[in-house]
Backbone:
């Protein structure tokens, strides 16, 4: 494992710490993996394609290894090597242990801001539901461009600007009893809320050799409170980390989410981007 995150790194330390200490415990739960974002990730991965000569594949913000879990048969068939990079030690440890005896996949500590790999060493970059946690999309894009070969490609699944607007309003209502106004604003500001045009501009370092496209997808997914909590706790641990009385917060959250409930269950209005870079 390479060096841990220092105070001066341009990475959001609080996000990484809370994924490490809380998110990793929840992450491998089948209800997280099969519902909502787990399901969206699986469908995204089913659609991405590899070139016949792709060899080195990079997964950024790999978490506990979800991308390789889903794509491993393709890696074996095409003789590809996968490298997973992840800044949260707790998540990384699970991925390393899972693939301990598998030579196809290796993992290292790092981030979008500091990828511990050589220039132009990767044929493809994949990333699922991690890029929205960066402080600066421009820094992340510059670093991704550095490690990607000029003939390579990129597929990134990222949360969009208005993702979960109705659901998150209920969360903010529940947070009112537990955090100050300033803290609520801070937690709301944790995630990037960029438009497709802003994503495209941030990816301008790719313009030399690549065509960048940003597609937006919207959907509503209904679930019970428990179904929603499994994915939300696994994927939003930086927000929950701020709350002191977590049991009381969960009671308030249930009450607020039940207020937006329908006959089909509690709705979550998803919105996400699929960013692609293809060599020109
Ligand atoms: C919602 S999880 C997604 C994990 C995995 N890609 C998946 O789909 O299961 C978000 C991940 O992004 C990681 N992350 C947060 N900030 C990051 C950064 N600056 N660079 C790379 N990864 C980051 C978190 O530690 C966490 O593992």
Residues:
């Amino acid at each position: 494992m390479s060096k841990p995150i220092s105070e001066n790194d341009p990475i959001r330390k609080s996000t990484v710490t809370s994924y490490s200490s809380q998110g990793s415990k929840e992450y491998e739960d089948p209800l997280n993996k099969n519902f909502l974002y787990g399901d969206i990730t699986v469908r995204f991965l089913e659609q991405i394609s590899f070139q016949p000569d792709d060899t080195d594949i990079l997964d950024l913000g790999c978490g506990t290894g979800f991308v390789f879990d889903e794509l491993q048969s393709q890696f074996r068939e095409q003789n590809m090597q996968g490298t997973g990079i992840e800044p949260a030690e707790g998540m990384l440890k699970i991925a390393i242990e899972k693939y301990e005896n598998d030579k196809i996949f290796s993992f290292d500590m790092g981030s979008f801001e500091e990828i511990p790999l050589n220039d132009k060493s990767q044929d493809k970059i994949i990333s699922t539901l991690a890029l929205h946690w960066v402080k600066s999309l421009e820094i992340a894009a510059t670093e991704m461009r550095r490690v990607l070969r000029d003939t390579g490609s990129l597929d990134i699944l990222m949360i969009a600007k208005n993702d979960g607007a109705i659901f998150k309003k209920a969360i903010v209502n529940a947070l009112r009893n537990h955090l100050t106004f300033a803290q609520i604003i801070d937690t709301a500001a944790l995630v990037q809320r960029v438009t497709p045009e802003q994503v495209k501009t941030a990816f301008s370092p790719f313009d030399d050799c690549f065509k960048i496209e940003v597609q937006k997808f919207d959907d509503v997914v209904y679930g019970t409170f428990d179904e929603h909590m499994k994915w939300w706790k696994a994927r939003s641990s930086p927000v929950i980390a701020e709350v002191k009385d977590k049991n009381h917060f969960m009671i308030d959250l249930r009450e607020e989410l039940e207020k937006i409930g329908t006959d089909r269950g509690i709705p979550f209005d998803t919105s996400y981007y699929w960013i692609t870079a293809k060599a020109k």
